[in-house]
Structures are given as structure tokens and as C-alpha cells.
Structure to design on (271 residues):
């Protein structure tokens, strides 16, 4: 029997003008607009039948601050499904504190690229299943990459970025995904800066290239406009889970509607 595919809502959390945690939604990691209260949204998704839940502190790394753990604790009290927390995690101590705050897994991007040994340290101390390596990828159409795919008739490679997509690294996503797996990552969380917030579908070439390279579970993220896009990423790539935000945040589709759509088309999901 095939493993069920997971549907995962995600909230991008930042500090608002009053110093409070708030959920924001944007396009291409920019033009962020207030969307709601993180605790209320966590409570709603727990009731809605989500398989897991992702909480991302989207400016912690760029601002050099710690993850907002008080808010994580409150969210964890409302969520009884696996909770992944990311943003500003740079050390083994950060991983420990985030897990102690109620997270089941931590998502690490900038901290792991700056110190790849953090993956091994985290996996040894807390288990591979706790370590999710997040990749914020962008397309580059030049000759500086190592692994190329065809996109709209052009050859491109995917570059890892850091600090919420604000800085390029020159690191090839496919090379990094393979290294992260070798170092002990339990999952790979693949975000596309090019597709983020567009609702035009997942970056299929990106997700497929990563999933074809690793055996570690891959979570596809960015660009979902509806259940048909989730169906496409599950049937056209080896993704194990699909993450979506705005289609659920704004009640365009429910998680149960999405799962029913997939079930009717033969995609194994937990109903």
C-alpha cells in the first residue's frame, strides 16, 4: 500500500508594528500583507484535518534574532498534529529550545548553509526525523551552476538563497540537497522564490529535480493555486507532501475539499 501524501498548511509569521506576532502573505517573498493571528490560524488548521502544520518566522534570520518561542509555545498548545518551526535557528541550542517549546521538527535554512555540520549535530542529538532542511531556491539562467534542467525551452539551475530569499549563495540546490541528506536531514522543504505567492502552480522542474536526487522525503512549497496544483506536484514529481498557504488562509479551498479532490483521482491521502 502506498504511503499517503501529506497536506500541510503553513503560516509565515513576523512581528507587526505593535510588536505582536502576526501572519503575513506575499508574492515572491515580498509585498507582505497582514493575514491573521497565528494562534487562531493554528487552532483552525488543527480542526480542519491538516496532516501537519508549519510555522515559519520569516524575518528572524535576516534580522539576526531568535525565533519567537513564546508564540511557538502558544501555537503548540493548540496543535495536536506534527508541528515544524523554522526561522533563526543557527545552533544546537536553538534546536533544543525550539523543540522544548513544542515543535516536533525544526526547519533550518541559513544556519545550515553557513554551518553544514549543524545538520549532523542536530540529527545525532535529537534524531533525523526532527531535522528539516529548508531550501529557498531561485532560478538562474547562466553558466555558474552544476545541475541544469529545461524550463520553458531554456536551461537553468537553481540557487540556494538565505535570509528569507534576500541573498544568493552561489550554492547549487541539487548539490546542497544531496549533501544535506548525507549529513542526516530527515526531510527537505523545497521553496521556490519564483513561484511563491503566484498561485500559478508549484515549480515542477525544481521539485522533480530535488526528489529525483534524494531518497529523503520532499515537501513541495510555493505557488499553489488550488487542488489541481497539488495533484500535479504529486503526479509529476516524487514529492511526499505539499505545502500551501493562501488558498487555505483565505478559504478558497478547505483541506477536506482538497483531500477529496486528490482521493477521487487516486492520490492516497488521509481522509
Amino acid at each position: 500500500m502506498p504511503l499517503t501524501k501529506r497536506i500541510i498548511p503553513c503560516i509565515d509569521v513576523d512581528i507587526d508594528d505593535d510588536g505582536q506576532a502576526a501572519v503575513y502573505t506575499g508574492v515572491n517573498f515580498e509585498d507582505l500583507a497582514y493575514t491573521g493571528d497565528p494562534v487562531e490560524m493554528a487552532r483552525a488548521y488543527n480542526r480542519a484535518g491538516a496532516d501537519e502544520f508549519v510555522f515559519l518566522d520569516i524575518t528572524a534570520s535576516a534580522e539576526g534574532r531568535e525565533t519567537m518561542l513564546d508564540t511557538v509555545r502558544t501555537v503548540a498548545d493548540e496543535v495536536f498534529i506534527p508541528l515544524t518551526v523554522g526561522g533563526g535557528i543557527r545552533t544546537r541550542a536553538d534546536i533544543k529550545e525550539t523543540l522544548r517549546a513544542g515543535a516536533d521538527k525544526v526547519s533550518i535554512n541559513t544556519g545550515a548553509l553557513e554551518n553544514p555540520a549543524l545538520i549532523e549535530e542536530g540529527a545525532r542529538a535529537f534524531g533525523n526525523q526532527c531535522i528539516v532542511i529548508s531550501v529557498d531556491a531561485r532560478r538562474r539562467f547562466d553558466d555558474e551552476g552544476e545541475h541544469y534542467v529545461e524550463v520553458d525551452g531554456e536551461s537553468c539551475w537553481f540557487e540556494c538563497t538565505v535570509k528569507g530569499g534576500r541573498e544568493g549563495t552561489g550554492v547549487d540546490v541539487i548539490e546542497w540537497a544531496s549533501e544535506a541528506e548525507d549529513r542526516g536531514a530527515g526531510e527537505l522543504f523545497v521553496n521556490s522564490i519564483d513561484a511563491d505567492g503566484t498561485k500559478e502552480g508549484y515549480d515542477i522542474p525544481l521539485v522533480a529535480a530535488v526528489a529525483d536526487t534524494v531518497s529523503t522525503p520532499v515537501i513541495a512549497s510555493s505557488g499553489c493555486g488550488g487542488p489541481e496544483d497539488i495533484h500535479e506536484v504529486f503526479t509529476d514529481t516524487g514529492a511526499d507532501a505539499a505545502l500551501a498557504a493562501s488558498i487555505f488562509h483565505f478559504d478558497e479551498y478547505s483541506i477536506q475539499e482538497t483531500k477529496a479532490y486528490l482521493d477521487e483521482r487516486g492520490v492516497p491521502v488521509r481522509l
